[in-house]
Structure formats: C-alpha cells, structure tokens
Amino acid sequence: MAGNREFLYRRLHSLLGVVPIGIFLIQHLVVNHFATGGPESFNKAADFMGNLPFRIVLETVIIYLPILFHAIYGLYIAFTAKNNASQYSYFRNWMFMLQRVSGVITLIFITWHVWETRVAAAFGAHVNYSMMNEILSSPFMFAFYVIGTISTVFHFANGLWSFMVSWGITVSPRSQVISTYITTGVFVILSIILIRTLLAFV
C-alpha cells in the first residue's frame, strides 16, 4: 500500500514538473524576454499578466500549489535518494545527482524571487522594469539570478528527460539518447533567452 502511494506521489511529482510548472516557466521566460525591447515593452507585458482576470486564483491553483507539492516531495527525494556519481562516472548518474542539487538551488531562488516580487507587490510595490533593474544592479544579486535561473532551467530540462522515461514515452535506449539531445537543446535555448533577459535589465 505504501509502495503504491509512493509510486503515485512520484508520478504526480514528475507530471507537475512539466504540467503546469514547466509550461509556466516557459511562459514566464517569454514574458520577461520583452525586456530586450526596452522598459516600455516589458512593462506592457508585465501589466498584461498582472491584470489577468482571476489572477490570484489562477496563480494559486496553477502555480503555487503545484510548486509547493513539487518542492516538498522533491526535497524528500533529494535527501533520501542514493547518489552514485562518486562511484560511477556515467553521464546519467551525474544527471541524477545534479537534478537533486539543482532542485535545492531552484527552490532557494524561487522563494527569494517570489519574496522580492510577488510578496513586495502585495504590499504595494509595482513589478516593473525599474524594480528588476534595481534588483539586478547589484553584482551579487545579478550573479545570484544567473545561478538561480540557470539552475531552474537545467532542473526543468533534465526533469523533462526523466518525465519521458517514467511515463513510458522514451522506452528504448535509442529514444532516450534522442531525448537527451532534445532536452539539452531545450536547456541551451531557454538559457540563452534568460541570459539575454537578465542583461536587458542592466
């Protein structure tokens, strides 16, 4: 019984990492990328997202609750999993370990980012280009955002590979090799988008 429950929890954890969390990540990166068009471009995109009907309900149901479950169960996996990277230098073994490490870094980053933006907005701050420019004007915070966002994108892309395996999409070794190239491409493309965005804010 406990085994079945853990199996379901792991499946739900995997699914939520792609839908809706992964979809939200891509959408968030696309909206933020409007900063490359200048302050007015970003502010228009941010205002549009901030004024969506039922925004608080949508954020709670589609973003915060799934992230909360994914984070809590992810921490359980991270601290109970047996990493063998020090004994076996296989590529996937290292990816297994890095997935856990990046998950912890991502959780720290997202918590801080939400505190700096969404929580601040709840107390009257305006989430706009000026806010992000002020945050990223600090070299320390810029480095923190680079590490945090790269970690987040890696965690999503590598998790996408695991999702396809665990849900029976990529069963054969060949299909898993192909999905490795695909998810690596996803990581590179999203990383370029986010680095361009961060540089646009400074």
Structure notes:
By secondary structure, the protein is an all-alpha fold. It has one domain: Fumarate reductase/succinate dehydrogenase, transmembrane subunit (3 helical TM bundles of succinate and fumarate reductases, Up-down Bundle). Helices cover 81% and strands 0% of the residues. It is built from eight helices and no strands. Helix 4 runs antiparallel to helix 5. The mean pLDDT is 93.
What's the short version?
This protein has 202 residues and is mostly helical.
Mean pLDDT: 93
Shape summary: globular
Helical segment tally? 8
Structural class: mainly alpha
The largest sheet, given as strand count, sense and whether it forms a barrel, is:
none
Distance between the termini: 53 Å
In the CATH hierarchy, what is the superfamily?
A: Fumarate reductase/succinate dehydrogenase, transmembrane subunit
Main traits of this protein?
8 helices; 3 helical TM bundles of succinate and fumarate reductases; mainly alpha
Give the SSE layout.
Blueprint: H1 2-18, H2 21-32, H3 39-50, H4 55-80, H5 91-122, H6 129-136, H7 139-166, H8 173-201
Helix pairs in contact: 1-4, 1-7, 2-8, 4-5, 5-7, 7-8
